[in-house]
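User: Run a structure prediction on this.
Assistant: Running it now.
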Amino acid sequence: MKVKLCPYCNCGIVPLRCTYCSITCASAARRASKNLSGRKHSEKNSARATAWQQANRERRKQIQNDYYARNKALIAEKMKERAKIPKVIHQQKMASQRYRERHSEEILIRNREREQSEERKQYHQDWKARNKDKVKENNARQKNRRKFGGNRFIVLKRDSYTCQDCGVEAKDVHHLDHSGQTESPNNELSNLITLCKSCHAKRHLNEESKF
């Protein structure tokens, strides 16, 4: 009796009237053929889509711009709602971090060019002129962190914005051990005190006269 090998597994002996050695091999071969044809179809479609996108790049941009112009308010609301989701916030942070790591040199060059440009300098000057209160608050916060370790406003509230020498309203904070001008000042609350400008100057003059 003539026999042949199974075209799927190459191990089973198949009678002449059968194509595969078992139903299992037949169904597996059918699935493999279906997946292969589907993959070829998807590759063909993706190539066609890529070619269309490259040929119609300007048209796609115009379609996107028109859509954003028509639905600007709706898109803004959706973005606000999406930005509140913790998972999305984490994904956005990680994406921005990866972008900065990949393009660190480009970002440095771009920032230097912006800082050196005259338009940027003029923009900063105009912004500071319009927002003097914000600049003042920001300078006060930086001074608080740099000179008092973040304890300046805590001390002022503790002393009720009152000079501890003469009792008038005051906004200066003084280091009792005179370490404020050193590289590592002692910013503990027990070492900080509220003084007015005149009493603050007197304390420093008395300290200088000792040396």
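Residues 23-55 form the longest helix (33 residues).
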